[in-house]
């Protein structure tokens, strides 16, 4: 089971939809999050992409020297980036970070944003272009010289001089809920990511992608993108969830939902359907809360509870085939510590995070004695 964290390059704070308690997301703050995630034992961290975010490649590159083990899940944008340029960027990052690059393939779902970036492709055409992009990207990073006369991409004798450390190329992650997205995942990617839908819906998506991949003679791993609100008790966790949206008014929710509805993303449509813009039915499955999706695009659900409860819900997803959990929480620096302290001890092999794994003393020394360590739950 891998657990990733998140870099909030679009902003961070204590309350959704409010400037109260907001934090300035500058390089110092991102470095604090990176060092925390690295030292606490998170396996990697996702960096979002889009016009409302700092550039993910520049951000990730700036954080390489601040970390030792943390892997960076960084977006490539077919239809906006050329595949050979993206391949050179990936190879350089992978080499300079000594193999710590993971690649998130983002086809895009907001036509307004895509038009601003010069992409006018329809929904299904974006996935066609992504397939051609990945043929070239994967080929040149594997050491091949690639020529392609495609519908969307045309290259002749494309190659990359400096190969990546990861073989044959840095692992490809991808999320999408439409038929076209599932076809792309089945043919090309290593890890299919779903947003945090109820387990029965996640099971259907896993089964579908597995079946499509089998027709290509391939297997695919699976991950899930969720927020997490973990506290010392279930009651405290639900109180924290309520507090996160306490500054939201109905007008802000309505305006956010109107903006999100313009996307032609099937995943975004499914996220919106979970709550319908209403505050009164936000627990959509046991300990799965849709409140974040009232105003946030993309991943809009959170696991809520104490450490054992959240670990139990994660295990239910793991039994469906999920092996990677990409988490986030508000504010991201504080919540990284809470997850490590309250959730990690209940996950297999996690113990108390990096401090315990390194064998050093943990906790305050009281009267010249070390406090006894808590044993990790199995």
Q: Class of one domain, according to the CATH hierarchy?
A: Alpha Beta
Name of the CATH superfamily of one domain:
Luciferase-like domain
The helix content is 25-40%
CATH architecture of one domain: Alpha-Beta Barrel
How many beta-strand elements? Answer: 16
Euclidean distance between termini CA atoms: 13 Å
Order of helices and strands: EEEHEHEHEHHEEEHEHEEHHHEEEHEHH
SS-based class: alpha/beta
Give the rounded overall mean pLDDT.
93
**Biggest sheet record:** 8 strands, parallel, barrel
Low-confidence stretches: none
- Tell me the strand order in the biggest sheet: 1-4-5-6-9-10-11-16
Q: In the CATH scheme, what's the topology name of one domain?
A: TIM Barrel
Q: Quickly count the helices.
A: 13
Gyration radius, to the nearest Å? 21 Å
Strand percentage lies at 15-25%
Q: So what's the overall shape?
A: globular
Give a written overview of the molecule.
The chain has an eight-stranded parallel beta barrel with strand order 1-4-5-6-9-10-11-16, surrounded by six helices. Strands 12-15-14-13 form a four-stranded mixed sheet. Strands 2-3 form a two-stranded antiparallel sheet. It contains 13 helices and 16 strands. The radius of gyration is 21 Å and the shape is globular. The chain has a domain at 2-76 and 171-357: Alpha-Beta Barrel (TIM Barrel). The mean pLDDT is 93. The chain is α/β, with parallel strands linked by helices and 378 residues long. It comes from Vogesella aquatica. It catalyses: an alkanesulfonate + FMNH2 + O2 = an aldehyde + FMN + sulfite + H2O + 2 H(+).
């Amino acid at each position: 089971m891998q657990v990733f964290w998140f870099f909030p390059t679009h902003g961070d704070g204590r309350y959704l939809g409010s400037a109260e308690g907001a934090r300035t997301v500058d390089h110092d703050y991102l470095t604090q999050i990176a060092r925390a995630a690295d030292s606490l034992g998170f396996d990697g961290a996702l960096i979002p992409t889009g016009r409302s975010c700092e550039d993910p490649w520049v951000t990730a590159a700036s954080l390489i020297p601040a970390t030792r083990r943390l892997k960076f899940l960084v977006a490539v944008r077919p239809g906006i980036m050329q595949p050979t340029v993206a391949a050179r960027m990936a190879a350089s990052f992978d080499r300079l970070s000594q193999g710590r690059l993971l690649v998130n393939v983002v086809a895009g779902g907001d036509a307004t944003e895509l038009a601003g970036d010069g992409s006018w492709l329809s929904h299904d055409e974006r996935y066609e272009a992504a397939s051609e992009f990945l043929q070239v990207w994967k080929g040149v990073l594997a050491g091949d010289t690639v020529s392609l006369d495609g519908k969307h991409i045309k290259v002749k004798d494309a190659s990359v001089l400096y190969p990546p450390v990861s073989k044959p190329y840095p692992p490809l992650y991808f999320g999408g809920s439409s038929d076209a997205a599932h076809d792309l995942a089945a043919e090309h990617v290593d890890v299919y990511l779903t947003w945090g839908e109820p387990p029965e819906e996640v099971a259907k998506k896993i089964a579908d992608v597995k079946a499509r991949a089998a027709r290509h003679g391939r297997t695919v791993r699976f991950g899930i993108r969720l927020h997490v609100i973990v506290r010392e008790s279930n009651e405290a966790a639900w109180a924290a969830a309520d507090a996160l949206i306490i500054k939201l008014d109905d007008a802000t929710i309505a305006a956010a939902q109107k903006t999100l509805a313009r996307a032609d993303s099937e995943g975004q449509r499914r996220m919106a359907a979970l709550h319908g813009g209403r505050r009164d039915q936000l627990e959509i499955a046991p300990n799965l809360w849709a409140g974040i999706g009232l105003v946030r695009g993309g991943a809009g659900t959170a696991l809520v509870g104490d450490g054992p409860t959240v670990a139990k819900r994660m295990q239910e997803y793991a039994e469906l085939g999920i092996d990677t959990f990409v988490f986030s929480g508000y504010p991201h620096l504080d919540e990284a510590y809470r997850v490590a302290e309250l959730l990690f001890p209940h996950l297999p092999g996690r113990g108390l995070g990096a401090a315990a794994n390194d064998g050093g003393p943990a906790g305050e020394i009281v009267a010249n004695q070390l406090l006894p360590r808590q044993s990790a739950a199995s």
